[in-house]
Design a protein that fits this description.
alpha+beta, 136 residues, Alpha-D-Glucose-1,6-Bisphosphate, Chain A, domain 4, 3 helices, six-stranded antiparallel beta sheet, single chain
């Protein structure tokens, strides 16, 4: 099943603050999951799941495909036991009063993963808002 999701959020924080929350491993762990992320192209990293949903691994295997501080970052994203990695892209745009974050999640997956991803990213982006607010 083809997956092409777009999420857009406004954060009342400067782009550099949002960028830090996306690229600092400790900050990333607070709004996403524990990880061994490093912001460099070609870096393979993983997220450790707190609970493992059916048909998924205990970890999400990723790779940094592109990074353009402080405006754009692309990851590969493999969360199921089968298939090719999906793609996650973060774009930051400075806007009056803060930053617009545009997240796209694209690839091929099964219907179960579609529903989980469709519900999961908005929750993660809401948690990013909490993380940003707490870091002030």
């Amino acid at each position: 099943m083809k997956l092409d999701l777009l999420f857009e959020e406004f954060y009342p924080h400067p782009p550099d603050a949002v960028w830090r929350a996306l690229t600092d491993p400790a900050a990333l762990a607070t709004w996403m999951m524990p990880n061994d992320f490093e912001p460099q192209v070609g870096r393979r990293f993983s997220f450790k799941r707190e609970a493992t949903p059916p048909n998924t691994r205990g970890t999400i295997e990723c790779e940094v495909l592109a990074i353009e501080p402080p405006a754009r970052m692309v990851w590969s994203w493999l969360s199921t036991d089968e298939g090719a990695p999906n793609r996650v892209e973060f774009r930051l745009e400075p806007v009056t009063g803060g930053t617009r974050l545009i997240l796209t999640y694209t690839g091929e997956t099964d219907p179960y993963t579609v529903s989980r991803v469709t519900a999961g990213w908005p929750q993660r982006l809401a948690q990013l808002r909490v993380t940003l607010n707490e870091s002030q």
